[in-house]
Amino acid sequence: MNFKFNSPVQKIEDAVFTDKKIELYLKRDDLIHPLISGNKWRKLKYLLADARLQHKTHLVTFGGAFSNHLLATASAGAMFGFKTTGFVRGEEVKNDILFMCSLLGMQLIFTDRQSYQHKQELFLSRFSTDPEAYFIDEGGASAAAALGCSELTDELTETYDHLFCACGTGTTAAGIINGLVRNNLSTQFEAVPVLKNAYWMKQEIEKYLVKEALFNLHATYDFGGYAKTTPELLYFIKKFIAATGILIDPVYTGKMLFTVFDLAGKDYFKSGSKILAIHTGGIFGLLGMKDKF
Ligand SMILES: *Cc1c(COP(=O)(O)O)cnc(C)c1O
To answer: Which of 131, 224, 245, 275 has its CB surrounded by the most CB atoms within 10 Å?
Structure first.
């Protein structure tokens, strides 16, 4: 069940960085796998190992109708010989992500928003008699997922002054912070929550910290909330993609990179700073937003 791939780090050129005498690098976790992309492989790795260890052959998990986590779980399940079931939040819909989940063999169970709140109960109501069923929380949120994400920092061969990452549940952020601490790196962690006014993200991240650590939270770059966009964000994404050839999505990496560019313009970084941003993948998020562009 091991595929080990150190994602490459690529320099991003832009006039704002030259002007301010700073450097931006992008760690291309989106290249880890086309379907189990970005942080989702790091998050699933130890969960799948644990399922295997417990002789569980059926992964049961949860997500919205455009969930990168559902797609990643469906894909990892197919690759490594697990059956998969996804509880999908909301009424039955058809879209490109769910189409691929189905192709990969995932059973989809559409669930009203009320019942969806109670994930353990949902799991038990359907699978209490299936000894092979293995519960994976929405987005894979767990200490095991944070451990997988911490390994990102073991791959770094340079030292950076700042490290930026988009946050949904905050598990990836916590893992990376744990990794920075473990490797004695003084890199300043910069969390960019993609949900509305997510000042509570601080506590969510702290839940999975192995040791207390300081980090910055940029909670004002939510663009109206989860999966919400503005013309300004969409314009930035189009310009970035056309200038670099790197696809970024409006839900996560687009907002995170917008934050980096915006802060650079506002002199947030000292001259000479080296910044690392994590491309956490999820470019199929673009497919759910075609009509917005
Ligand atoms: C899931 C996801 C995230 C958020 O990861 P968390 O660990 O939930 O904070 C960030 N970026 C992309 C592209 C994702 O798919």
So the answer is: 275
